[in-house]
Amino acid sequence: MKKQEYAIVDIETTGGNASGSRITEIAIIIHDGTNVLDRYETLVNPEQDIPPSIFGLTGINNEMVANAPIFDDISEKVLEMLTDRVFVAHNVNFDYSFVHHQLEQAGFQWSAKKLCTVRAARKIKPGLGSYSLGNLCNSLNISLENRHRAGGDADATALLFSLLLEWDDAGEIDKMIKKTAQDQRLPPNLPADDFNNLPDKPGVYYFYNQAKKVIYVGKAINLKKRVTSHFTGNNINSQRQHFLRDIHGISFEICATELMALLLECTEIKKLWPTYNRALKRFEAKYGIYQYEARNGYKYLAVGKLSKFQTCIHEFNSQYDGINLLRTLAEHFEIDHRFCKYTRPEEGDFFQNNDTKALPDVSFHNEQVDNAIEFLLNNRPSFAIIDKGRSTDERSCIWIENGHFHGMGYIPRDVAINDSDEVKNYVTPYKSNQYIEQLIFAYAEKHPRKIFFNKQLFIS
User: Fold this and answer.
1) Could you give the CA distance from residue 258 to residue 118 in angstroms, rounded to a whole number?
2) SS3 track for 104-154
3) Three-class SS of residue 431?
4) Exposed, middle or buried, 426 (CB in 10 Å: 0-12/13-18/19+)?
5) Contact 214/207 with Cβ under 8 angstroms?
6) What are the residue boundaries of the GIY-YIG domain, all occurrences included (predicted)?
7) How far is residue 234 from each of residues 7, 31, 241, 417, measured CA to CA in Å?
8) Taking Cα atoms as reference points, which of 167, 74, 85 lies closest to residue 120?
């Protein structure tokens, strides 16, 4: 049987992601686990400008690569050296994504088993202060010359790899290069135990950066599967590349149901505002219902954009939702449509209505507007959603107070709950918002048998 060989690779590039950047230098060292068998190194013309910041880091400028081969010209050589060998690099997913992408652009379909020397060093030499190539070389007395050049970094990685093989009494490297090894998909700075501790249960997970700050919050029906999905595939998008490099830790909270996980995710994003959460930020309320009184004494209701200088009666994610509710209120409380404005007017617009024919009695009209506002503020439904718990010894509970998400928690199964006040003793309060309320009401409509202690039905 042919002895396993390794292609130890380092590249320099014009930027941080393969989709918009290109390779400027590549070095490949062929290693058989004992000796270096072959070596290849060349500058590469990236066919795009090298930014000054990259020149400052690597020392490679446009003039140096002007007469170098383009990647297409060396692609067959690169492919030949990589074929049937384990692809080894320090932070392997970065180098692999560039090489894979540029070989694909050159017309070659290629893939390989990968080995990350960052992750291997964490397993074989745990407890070091830093696992960057420079700091590892200092800690382990490895010679590192021509730092941030492909040849110098590849030589240092080869020396590191040889030492790791020598120290690997537990056979960690053989485990890692197996195609099914989970570690090979993990971000380079993520401790494997953080991932391995994830359960196959619903819940919310948190990604942390090096400063222990939450950078992403997500919900899952199956925590382990959902987190794994972040790390699979060969996505070369710059946002994903930066995202993976920033992940230094994971924590999680198990939830009994997917709905509870979704509600917790929403409230945590609102509280923590993590850098990489973008989707749910779009659901921030943007519109509200306002009340105005004109100089003629009539009160108006209007839908308009939220303003930090004015207080609205009720918030909405979209203008459409606000208009629908205002129309429903107007119909239910018999408010003259002329006193309902579906875009918030500039100050003074209320006073320009000269149509005084058959206007309602001002006192009666204003009382109806007050009744509509009172209903909107104080007469929305209160109810509990009772569902399965995290174990057979408990039940989960979500409590809605006057149409707003009040909180959620868990009730021991041997405790009898007879009224809403008892339910509230078991819930942890959370802040509500319009998006959360939409989720809860949509769920309640689909699952009426899970609704208990319903005190009030909202107009529809």
Assistant:
1) 35
2) HHCCCCCCCCEEEHHHHHHHHCCCCCCCCHHHHHHHHCCCCCCCCCHHHHH
3) coil
4) buried
5) yes
6) 200-278
7) 19, 25, 10, 51
8) 167
Query: In this structure, are residues 217 and 235 in contact, taking their beta carbons and an 8 Å threshold?
Result: no
Q: In whole angstroms, give the CA distance from residue 94 to residue 183.
A: 15
> Hey, what are 370's tokens?
């007050």
Q: State how far the Cα of 441 lies from the Cα of 437, in Å rounded to an integer.
A: 6
CA distance linking residue 128 with residue 45, whole number of Å: 37
pLDDT for 355: 55
Residue 154 contacts residue 145 (beta carbons within 8 Å): no
Residue 208 C-alpha from the chain's centroid: 11
pTM (2 decimals)? 0.61
Q: Give the integer Cα–Cα distance in Å for 99 and 49.
A: 19
Cβ(195)–Cβ(249) under 8 Å? no
Categorise residue 247: left if φ over 0, alpha if ψ from -120 to 50, beta otherwise.
beta
Q: How far apart are CA 180 and CA 172, in angstroms?
A: 14
Cα angle: 157, vertex 32, 86; to 5 degrees: 70
Residue ranges of E strands in 201-298: 203-208, 214-220, 249-254, 287-293
- Token pair, residue 120, equals 């291997």
Is 381 buried (19+), middle (13-18) or exposed (0-12) by CB count in 10 A?
A: middle
Pairwise CA distance, residues 347 & 450, whole Å: 47
Number of alpha carbons in the 13 Å side-chain half-sphere of residue 114: 25
Tens-place pLDDT, residues 141-189: 888 888 889 999 999 999 999 999 999 999 999 888 875 455 567 888 8
- Rounded to whole angstroms, the Cα distance separating 149 from 156 reads 11
Asked if 121 contacts 130 with a C-beta cutoff of 8 angstroms, the reply is: no
